[in-house]
Specification:
The structure is a homodimer. Chain A is an alpha+beta fold. Chain A has nine helices and 14 strands.
Chain lengths: 320, 320
C-alpha cells in the first residue's frame, strides 16, 4: 500500500507546474498555502463537491473526474466575473491506488492549465469516493457580479448552447470516457461527452461582463432552476419562449431548459448596453443569446412558453 | 423531504451572525463569496476532510462534528501564524435531515464565534457522510511561518499538553457526546472528550510567534509524525526524551507521543529568543514546553529516548 506522504509526492509530481503560478508564496506540502491577492482586489471563493455515482458515473476515468471537478467549481467564479487563480482539492477514495490518483491529478493539471490556475493544496482521506474543490479568484474591489442586480426592463442572456451535457447522460460510454478520447484532435470539443467531462467555464465572458451585467449565475442545475434563482434574488419575473433557447445539436428544448451540467452563464444587462454585450460575443467567439426581458415581480417567477402556450419545465438537478 | 434550498436557508439561519463579519462583501447564497483581505497581507488557506467512521465515530452528535470540523482545519492556520477569518463547508450526508443539518450548523457557528470566523459558503450533497472545511486566514506579507525554517541549535517547543484526545478514543461515550455536555459550566474544558470534540486551535500563540518561530506545524497526526515532518522539511534531526513531554492527566508518554488529534503546535525558535517565547506563554496563558534542540541532519530524523535508552514510537494516525 502506498503511504499517504508518498502518494502526496506523486500527486504533486503529476501537477507539475500547475502546483504554482504567480502569487503562490507557499504551495502544496505545508500546513497551509500562502497566496497573494492583487492590491485593491477582493477574493472570490466557491466550493463544490462531486460524489461518485451521484454527480458522475461510479468507476469513471480518473482524469475525466479530475478535469470536471475543477471545471464545475471554476464556473462559479466565472459567474461572479472573477479571474480564477488558485484551487484546493480534497479527495476521498476507498483505496487511493497511486496510478488512479496520479491520473486524477493529470486531469486536474490539464484543467488548471486551461483555466490559468494553480492547485495549491488539498487533502487525501480514505472513504467513499468524492471530490471537493474550493476555488479562489479575484475581482477589482466592488466589481463582482451577484445574482441580485437584475431590474425590470433588463435583458436576460444565455451564453453558448444548452442541452449538450444532458445528452451525454444517455450515452453509454459516459463512464468509460478518458480525457484523451476528448482531445480536440480526435473528438468534437462541442460533443455531448466533451460538454459533460470538459465543461469550459465562461471565464473571459465573465470578466468582460464586469460593469455591464447587472446579475449573473452559472447553469449548473439547469436553466429552469438557475434562472429561477437569479429572478428570485433580483426580485423580478420573466417569461421565456422555448423557441429562443440556443440548443446543442440534437437537444430538445424542454430537456435543454431542465438539464444541468451545461456550465453556461445566464446574465442580465440594461437594454442600453446591448452593443457592449454584442461586442463581448464578438471578442470572445462565444455565442450570447437574449432569451427574455425581466419584469416587475408579481411573485410568478419564471414562466415558460412554447408556441404561445404556457408549458411546465421540470425542475433541474435535485441534490437531495 | 426538505428541498435543498430550504435546507440551505435553515442552515444560514442557524449560522446567524457567523455567516458574516468584517470583510464579508458577499456571504452565503450567491455563486461564490466575495471577501476582503487587508492591504499588504497574504491569504493563507487550508482544506481538511473528516469522514464518518474514519475520523470520528459514525452516528456522533451533529453539533460536535460541526465544531470539530472547523477547529481541526483552523489549527492549520494557527500553525502558519495566520489570523483566521473565513471558512467554506462542504457537507455530504445520506439523508441531510433538517434537524441534523441545523444542529451541525449550530456547532459550526459556535466554533466560528470562538475563533472569530465567518462561514461564507459551502456545498450540500447527498452521499456518504463526510465534511470538508476550507479555512481562509491572513498574515502580514512575508510573515507566514512554514515548516522549513528550523536550523541546528534552535529549540523545539510544544504548546499545551499531549495525549488528551487520544484518551477520548477509549471513552465509550465518545460517539454520544453533544457540545452541551462539554460546556465549561458542566465539564472540564481540558477533559479528554472536550479535547477531542472541541480542540482549541492555538490561534493567539500562532500569531504571536510571527517573527519569533523559525518553523511550526500543528499536531494533527501525532507528535511523532508531525515533528518528523517539521524536521524533514527543515533538514534537521533531533532526539526527544519522553520525560520532557507535557502530558494530559492520565496520558502515558509513549501513547501521547504517537496520538493524533491534539491540535497543539510544535515550533522551533533560536535560543536567543527564549525570553520572547516565555513572554508568549505568560501573555496567552498557554503552557509552552521546550522538548529538544535541533541538530545538523545525518538523515536520522527524530529519535526518542526513555530513561536514556532509544525507544520506538509508533507512527501517528495513518490516513490510508
Amino acid at each position: 500500500m502506498t503511504g499517504e506522504f508518498d502518494l502526496i509526492d506523486a500527486i504533486i509530481d503529476a501537477l507539475g507546474t500547475t502546483a504554482t503560478r504567480d502569487g503562490v508564496v507557499v504551495g502544496p506540502g505545508d500546513d497551509a498555502a500562502v497566496l497573494a491577492i492583487p492590491p485593491n482586489h477582493e477574493l472570490v471563493v466557491s466550493t463544490d463537491t462531486l460524489v461518485a455515482d451521484r454527480h458522475y458515473p461510479d468507476g469513471a476515468c480518473a482524469d475525466a473526474i479530475g478535469y470536471r471537478s475543477l471545471a464545475v467549481a471554476t464556473s462559479d467564479l466565472a459567474a461572479m466575473g472573477a479571474e480564477p487563480a488558485y484551487a484546493t482539492v480534497a479527495l476521498t477514495s476507498p483505496d487511493l491506488a497511486a496510478d488512479w490518483a496520479t491520473r486524477f491529478a493529470d486531469g486536474l493539471a490539464q484543467a488548471a492549465r486551461d483555466f490559468g490556475m494553480a492547485i495549491v493544496g488539498g487533502n487525501l482521506a480514505r472513504g467513499p469516493e468524492a471530490v471537493t474543490v474550493t476555488v479562489f479568484g479575484h475581482t477589482p474591489r466592488g466589481a463582482a457580479i451577484t445574482r441580485s442586480g437584475a431590474r425590470p426592463g433588463h435583458t436576460l442572456y444565455v451564453t453558448g448552447t444548452l442541452g449538450g451535457a444532458g445528452l451525454a447522460l444517455g450515452d453509454e460510454s459516459l463512464g468509460e470516457c478518458s480525457l484523451a478520447a476528448l482531445d480536440p484532435s480526435s473528438a468534437d470539443p462541442g460533443s455531448p461527452l466533451a460538454r459533460y467531462w470538459k465543461p469550459q467555464p465562461r471565464i473571459t465572458v465573465g470578466t468582460d461582463l464586469r460593469g455591464i451585467a447587472s446579475a449573473a449565475i452559472d447553469i449548473s442545475d439547469g436553466l429552469s432552476s438557475d434562472l429561477g434563482h437569479l429572478c428570485r434574488a433580483s426580485a423580478v419575473d420573466c417569461g421565456v419562449d422555448l423557441a429562443r433557447l440556443p440548443l446543442c445539436p440534437g437537444a430538445e428544448p424542454t430537456a435543454a431548459a431542465a438539464a444541468g451540467d451545461d456550465y453556461e452563464l445566464v446574465f442580465a444587462a440594461p437594454p442600453e448596453l446591448e452593443d457592449a454585450v454584442e461586442d463581448i460575443a464578438r471578442r470572445t467567439g462565444v455565442a450570447i443569446t437574449p432569451i427574455c426581458t425581466a419584469r416587475e415581480s408579481t411573485g410568478a417567477g419564471v414562466r415558460w412558453f412554447h408556441d404561445g402556450t404556457v408549458v411546465d419545465i421540470p425542475a433541474g438537478f435535485r441534490h437531495f
